[in-house]
Amino acid sequence: MHEPDPRIVLGLHRSRYERRTLTSALDLGITAIDTSFNYQGFTAHATLADVAGDLLPHFTLSTKVGFFPAASQAEHSLDPARLRAALEQTNRDLGREPDLVFLHNPERSLRSPAAAARDALGQACATLAAAVEDGLCGAWGISTWDPRPLPGLVDATLPRPAVLMVSAGLLVGIDVLEASEALSAQWDVAPDQIWGMSPFGGDADNPLWGRLDPCIFISEADDAISALQAAFRTAFSLPEVGRIAVGTDNPTHLQQLIDALRYEPDADRLRTYRQILRDRTGRQAD
Questions:
Q1: CA-CA-CA-CA torsion for 85, 93, 122, 161, nearest 10 degrees?
Q2: Four-residue CA torsion sign, 16, 45, 247, 259
Q3: Which of 6, 83, 202, 264 is the most buried (most CB within 10 A)?
Q4: CB-CB contact of 40 with 17 (8 Å)
Q5: Residue 240 sits in which domain range?
Q6: Is residue 248 part of a domain?
């Protein structure tokens, strides 16, 4: 078994939730997993407990709440009562409290006027903060695909999350990238408590990764590093994050991502890349 490396979180969004996925991760030193209340058709927690309940104590487990079953498809809500009920069901289904619970994509329910949106976000954050106090989870955070609406709603009256999870990588637009950084600055969340997600833009098999050369963003890149490995390592700097959640049921792919951690991103080239992104949108650096 490899030594644990906290920089990689095994994301279970598209996982088949097979026991061997978790045992392979442990063998490789991956001891953090991330799931959600709504994954697997709202059965992810119960499925995890069923197929690998004895393995769960070996993992730091994070999950998310914010999406709920509806007649035709999942619906999003920041209603405090629904969030609390989901947290209580999460504990029952897992047979343990999760180490971390994210408020899942709060921007989906924040399209009302600013004052109402700020109030809704504040109540949702307070619900998760109270869940920590009540022993329903070890800590709470915010997971957001599109943080652009959030910085304007955050002030000193809102509870402060312990962790932020945001999109990361070369395919993240400059507006989303800078909104993530603004949000982390407003909430004073340090880079080592920011998690990246979707480092390949949601599809590691996208032909795009055969046409681009992310290796140019790696210092002292050698012939051993692949485009996907370079893209993954670079994602730790776009924005600066301490961990990345990545989903795979393939232990070989996971090993390749672990191997990529020995490389270092080229800070100068990444600054140039960010400026190119700004220039394309007509924006100026701060």
A1: 160
A2: negative
A3: 83
A4: yes
A5: 1-34+168-176+198-286
A6: yes
Q: What is the pTM of this model?
A: 0.94
pLDDT interval class at 207 (50, 70, 90):
confident
- Establish if 151 belongs to a structural domain: no
Domain contains 217: yes
Give the Cα separation of 43 and 41 in Å (integer): 5
Rounded Cα distance between 84 and 26, Å, is 31
CB-CB contact of 62 with 100 (8 Å): yes
Measured CA to CA, the distance from residue 21 to residue 106 in angstroms comes to 30
CA 269 to chain centre: 25
**Tokens found for residue 135:** 């022993």
- The contacts of residue 216 (CB under 8 Å, 6+ apart) are 266, 269
> What total of structural domains would you count in the chain?
1
Amino acid type, 125 = C
268 assigned to some structural domain: yes
Exposure string for 215-233, b = 16+ CB within 10 A, e = fewer? bebbeebeeebeebbbbbb
* 249 or 202: which leads in pLDDT: 249
pLDDT in tens, 68-110: 999 878 999 999 999 999 999 999 999 999 999 999 999 999 9
| SS3 call for 180 | helix
User: DSSP for 70-115?
Assistant: -SSS-EE---HHHHHHHHHHHHHHHTS--SEEEEE-GGGG--S-HH
Q: Which residue has the tokens 């619970």?
A: 101
Round to whole Å and give the CA distance between 251 and 233: 18
Residues 227 and 213: their CA atoms lie apart, in Å, by 6
